[in-house]
Amino acid sequence: MTEDIRKFLFEEYSKIFVNSEKFRLFFAPGRINVVGEHTDYTGGYCMPAGISAGTFVLVKPNSSAEFNAFSINFPDKILKVDISSNQIKENNWGDYLKGVLVELAADGYKIDRGFDGVVYGNIPNGSGLSSSASLEMSLILAILGINGYNIPENGSKEMIKLTLCAQRAENNFVGVKCGILDQFAIGNAKENRVIKMKCDTLDFKYSPINLKDKTIIIMNTNKKRRLEESKYNERRSECERGFEILKNYGIKKTALGDVTIGEWNELKSKVKSADEIIYRRLNHVVGENDRVLRAFESLQNDDLSRLARLINESGDSLKTDFEVTGDYLDAIVEAARSTSGVIAARMTGAGFGGCAIAIAQKDDLDKIKLEISQKYQKSTGIAPEFYNYDISDGAREIEI
Length: 400
Ligand code: ADP
Ligand code: MG
Prior knowledge:
single chain, alpha+beta, Ribosomal Protein S5, domain 2, Alpha-Beta Plaits, eight-stranded mixed sheet, four-stranded antiparallel sheet, 11 helices, 12 strands, about 20% strand, globular, binds adenosine-5'-diphosphate, binds magnesium ion
């Protein structure tokens, strides 16, 4: 169906039916994390932003208690979910819909009206830009919207409550033990802003991000994240052990993410002689939390070169201290950093494959991508992919 026909149908439709029966379109972005990697589960700081790619949900309320949902990305069948029945996990994308319905009900939202809806996501598959949280948040808004609830503002208390609901859906129903970073970022993002967030208290603040003649590019290594899960769990338990060690040395904090760089500097040589591996893990986490604070400050001061330095430092720390990069991420970061017009590059996400980000000169982008691509292919034999998005608002309704 062409765009013109779609528009025409919507126009004709809305002339005939009253407001409540109109089609409604909801959107939730994907997210990037500018700095603050592997800090969320320590209760530390992250600095995410919403991107212009995300998940669209076009819905029309139906007069039943049934959700009929079709995903253009997973077009095998129309999923049917009855609100009033006991939700059973089926290991398809409908689990996200069921999960958010269960958690919305647990939070006291009264959902008794279903929809006929189409879902479409334009976040590249497996790129680590959080298509799952984007799906959850767009579904939540669509469900609430057609059940008569107002759509909360990005950054409002109500929106934060919904992001927690989405996280619980993914933790409890889908069965993925993710932190709050993705949902929080996607619910609360704002155009041309980053969010500095503390992952345990959910204190947060926005800063403008003005990249001037530069832009953020996302570079997909196209290497599947194979070791990701086991190494992720290993790092989490290393951080827990490290925090216990710090407590034995007299640190009195409720979370590892609260340990300051000053406190760490006092203790790090002791930790290093006791356990070299734990030393390196803690050196990353405490340093990374501090880098988020400094990166946020540098954005507030419009100091792009300081931000670039911090992104590079973050990347080095993830490679050498936290050891979550691997050959492919190392190769693409190296290719980017050695290309003129690129001022910073680092891996992003959990690591061991997936994507890296770079800050690159806007008007030279094609040349820059080509050069990175050639260097990366030469060392790995794999062709990378590049994405370039605007920094965009969080989950919202789109006027149609
Ligand atoms: P990501 O890092 O992108 O969040 P996940 O593995 O956590 O990766 O989530 C991907 C899953 O989310 C998909 O396998 C699918 O079940 C669901 N999903 C994401 N986008 C869509 C979509 N547009 N339509 C249906 N399901 C989707
Ligand atoms: Mg996910």
